[in-house]
Amino acid sequence: MRAAVFRDHGPAGDVLRVEEIDTPAPGPGEVRVRVAYSGVNPTDWKWRSGAVPLPLTADFQVPNHDGAGVIDEVGPGVSPSRLGERVWTYLAAYRRPYGTAAEYTVVPSDQAVPLPPGVPLELGAMLGVPAVTAHRCLFADGPVTGRTVLVAGGAGAVGHYAIELARAAGATVLATVSSPEKAALAREAGAAHVVDYRSADAAAQIRAVAPEGVDRIVEVAPASNLALDLAVAAPSATIVSYAAEATQPTLPVRELMTRNLVLRFVLLYTLPAEAFRLAAADVTAALTAGSLTPLPTTVFPLESTAEAHDAVEGGAVGKVLIAVDPSLS
């Protein structure tokens, strides 16, 4: 099969090559997915570059965790009824050599989640890392129905799905962004109120629509945004961070204690199995209801996987996909 591979960490143009490698076969409890689209996330280029120190599990690595396609082979212990299913994948490359930037990937059966009828494979390839991360940030501390949720970075992929999942669950959603273009994206996703976090009166704008404070904050930059988060958090609110910055936040412990605030940190790789099960079920329900939508999309061919990684590393707005076999759509 054709696949993008890297054998050493480094810049995309130096280490990523599209080659012919052996087509994998599914083992016990696994399925093989013929890939239509591969989704590229920041975690993918960070691993490939060496910024995140995850070791390679073989003498080559096919990058990218997320994708969508069709199950074409099942391993022992998996029902043959899954053959032909349209699915989306998550964490395909975690501790496994076959990510989704290839004509085929092999994953545990649970990590190939059926797509509801009518949901495009392109949208399926966008889910994975961002949608599961967003779900955990929103629901690890209970339901958000009737609550007020603030999503930092509302135009990013995690922010996009956090807005849509929170709105589908009955929350009032606010978002912070850094530009009019990103504000438009957050509103399209369903944010009722959008604020430029760099505005001098950002906290006042949020408090104007949430005078009692916000109940849950989905945070992308905890060091940069902690002061704003504390200024708008309701008593007993939860601040959930899914990303890290080079700068470490300084925590005002007494204030956090006095207000009974909760700080939670989310890393997709180490979530409990139940969190993935719940996320898959809720994402499926939201897809069925039409509550999840695609982001603006830039599509690269498989031969341009290095350029796709560079686009994400460069901060591309929206979602970057690699078209591996779009004819499957």
Quick gist of this model?
With 329 residues, the chain is of the alpha/beta class.
What name is given to the CATH topology of the largest domain? Quinone Oxidoreductase, Chain A, domain 1
Helix content: 25-40%
Low-confidence stretches: none
**Tally the helices: what do you get?**
11
Alpha-carbon Rg, integer: 20 Å
What structural category arises from helix and sheet content? alpha/beta
Instruction: Report the CATH superfamily of the largest domain.
Output: Medium-chain alcohol dehydrogenases, catalytic domain
Mean pLDDT: 97
Question: What letter string, H or E per element, gives the SSE order?
Answer: EHEEHEEEEHHEHEHEHEHEHEHEHE
Number of strands: 15
Shape: globular
Quickly give the CATH architecture of the largest domain: Alpha-Beta Complex
Per CATH, the class of the largest domain reads Alpha Beta
Features:
single chain, alpha/beta, Quinone Oxidoreductase, Chain A, domain 1, Rossmann fold, seven-stranded mixed β-sheet, six-stranded parallel β-sheet, 15 strands
Could you explain how this protein is built, in words?
This protein has two domains: 2-126 and 294-328, Quinone Oxidoreductase, Chain A, domain 1 (Alpha-Beta Complex); 130-269, Rossmann fold (3-Layer(aba) Sandwich). It is built from eleven helices and 15 strands. The chain has helices at 12-15, 42-49, 121-124, 128-139, 157-168, 180-189, 202-209, 222-232, 253-258, 273-289, 305-313; strands at residues 2-5, 17-20, 30-40, 66-74, 86-89, 104-108, 112-114, 148-152, 172-177, 193-196, 214-219, 233-241, 262-265, 297-301, 319-323. The strands form three sheets. Strands 3, 4, 5, 6, 7, 14 and 15 form a seven-stranded mixed sheet that branches. Strands 10-9-8-11-12-13 form a six-stranded parallel sheet, with helices on both faces. The protein is globular. The mean pLDDT is 97.
